[in-house]
# Entry
Amino acid sequence: MKKRILMISPIPTHPQNAGNRSRIYRLLYALKNMGHEVHLLYVNTEDADLDGMQRCWGSSFYVAPYRFPRRSLPRYLSRVKFIFEKGFRHIQPVDYRYDKSLDDVLAMLLRKTRFDVVIVEYVFWSKALENFDGSMLKVIDTHDVFARRHLMYLENDQEYRWYCTSEEEEAKGLNRADVIIAIQEREKDYFSKVTKKKTVTVGHIAPLERLTPPTGNDRTLLFVGSNSVNNTHGINHFLSTAFPAIRAAVPNSQLLLVGRICQTVNDQDGCVKLGEVADLRSVYERADLVINPIRFSTGLSIKTIEALGYSKPVVATSMGSKGLEDGANKAFLIADDPAAFLQSVIKVLTDDQLADRLSKSAYEFAKGWNEASLRELAGVLG
# Structure
């Protein structure tokens, strides 16, 4: 049955220059392809291509202003008390970023349109669900586990600057929904322990296309990513530990960097920075091999499943293939040690039969992954 679905998101769908943006776009696109009527309310928290979003979603696209909540003295003292009790400055209450003016926007929208399903992106926007009654299915698309998320960064000597909360506060947000969407199975297991609400796994729905290998004598590696801390750390580590040896073994090799990652990585011979590219397909067409050498991460490795969907051979670390373990060393190669990573890269670049086998396996894995994710998504809607 056709449903009228409202998605509330503090993350834009355009431009798709980060994994979370691509995730939200592909999820909405899948719902639309299922025949549902999709509406997007974007809470304007980030730089976004509003014109592009308007063209994509038409009259079903709405923008809500955002102001980071001001803290009165009692609320400020409550925040200090929360930090003191939790014992760490990174921990935030689940609703710390929520702008209550969104409630007025939702009330106005609900007076005009009746929705069957409301999906909120991220647990820290879950308070929006309190505006909807029990006649509507309430869903949280989690993206990540945010309880003590900072610890992974601190353990890798990196500063953590985004949202993080406690297990209790995360559970408080999750319990506002009827259904919790996890992006990978391990996170589903965690959510199932902290809430009794129905929890399902809907992985990132990757674009699927059988791209042929590039012609010519050059051998091109590709990394597509934002300028996040874990991407920057991983690529700089690869450039310093593995890339010079790869270039020595395969002199006609180069690394293409695409996305905002170009803003934060070191310059190096053989490393070509293309910046943000509107047509990612054209970049993947140039790649003999996609790498994902990140050393720590949360959620699902969206860039890896997208590369597999484009039928590209992939070499990744365990962290760079998080959530995709069933395809390890079948649909793609895993190597965590720098020496093993460079040897795997060299092998793929110099063995056409291996590259062809990985390309075919990558596409089939991504196809099966998409089919499973779409089944789960359809099941959420009844």
